[in-house]
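S.,

Sequence below, as promised.
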Amino acid sequence: MDFEIVNGDVASCETECLVVGIEADSQLSPSAQALDTAAQGYISDIVGGGDIQGKTAETLLLQKVPGVSARRVLLVGLGASDERNDRSYRKIVKAAMGAIKGVRAESAVFSLDGLGSNDDDQYRQLRHLIEWAGAELYIYDETKSKKADPLALNKLAILLSEDDTELGEYALLDGVALINGISTARDLGNLPGNICTPTYLAEQAIALADEHEALETTILDEDEMRQLGMHSLLSVGNGSDQPSKLIVMHYKGGSEEDKNHVLVGKGITFDTGGISLKPGASMDEMKFDMCGAASVFGAMTALCEMNLELNVVGIVAAAENMPSGRATKPGDIVTTMSGQTVEILNTDAEGRLVLCDALTYAERFEPETVVDVATLTGACIVALGHQATGLLSNDDTLANDLLEAGNQAADKAWRLPLWDEYQEQLDSNFADIANIGGPPAGTITAACFLSRFTKSYRWAHLDIAGVAWNSKGKEKGATGRCVPLLTQHLLNLAAED
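The prediction came back faster than expected:
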């Protein structure tokens, strides 16, 4: 897919489908007015007839509009100005892309005059247009014998004035990098557990480093992890025939003096629950339990393509959680890399067991910040539904930075408390800490567990259990969240340096 910025008169724009906006109450946008003038009132006559009223995401496709070079003109409703926001904007882009794909147009040009949302930040508007249009082009057919028909659309452009072209180019390049990062995360999340194993993830990390000179990848096998004392991480994979891996991707885009920012991803490539076996219904969705790792892969992909002047370490703790005669049992006690002991009361609370050792390993990079990402708790879905990522942190500045990045990226997070009072729920009679704290405040106590391994640096935890995948019908699959949030956070860090 080719994305580009184009200039010129909207009526003279040569494309198979030209997208212009109609505001609420059938008001023509500036681009629509220009087309109407060229067409001698043709568009205003149609709009005046009530065929389209300008409601959000409403569409009307016109063929061979007189005086207009484009083969088709797609009118898309923008809604009322006081109702426009990121959510309505995404609906507009989705509706337009659906219409474009429906007529199998090979090229399309958007000319929305900055009216798609109420956002005054043109860079942000343009980047979201690219990002969300790209999301509508995503196809997963890796494991299907009959591949999807190739998309007819091969060129997507945004019409801008010459004065806005440079800003548009920045937005386009960042948007395409985000598309690629999100698609990487979605591809990994959608692959089944018999393909996407810890070894497969390690191979993908090596391949990514082969593509980008600034990236170095190191893979730790089970013997190496055992020598480091990562018995908590290793305990999760005890019951599986698939060997666990610790994947370390080091992006060196900054100077040697710049500190590292670390991203840590939970990579449970399939989660049966282990001996604490999950119910069979919807267990297929536990292939998505590595979406935290997929988010890290996606962010690292976008980071490499953006060539940010930043030093970033991506760590993925990869394991498969299976029941067998070798599997870890409830009541077992393991020693973490930090030296703390953990009583495993429930083997289905395994994400924190792999993350705690990865978080301890992160200390060797002397990080400025550490952010871990995990599909960690069903309790987060109860608390926040499928709209927001759960955020907990030991540092207010880092937490606020991530919240702001989520708002900028339209990939929102919501902060939950991390008070000492919750730590008592993790008390154990037989070890330093229990791996569960009971039903109350499950997302918080999971973060409390992790916080015991992050005292030497600024740290935040992102629980993406409610946002990492969609379970609904034809929409079922990985979403790629929270790649936009993480990538925006890295963009903001690079801008500060």
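The mean pLDDT is 97.

Coffee later?
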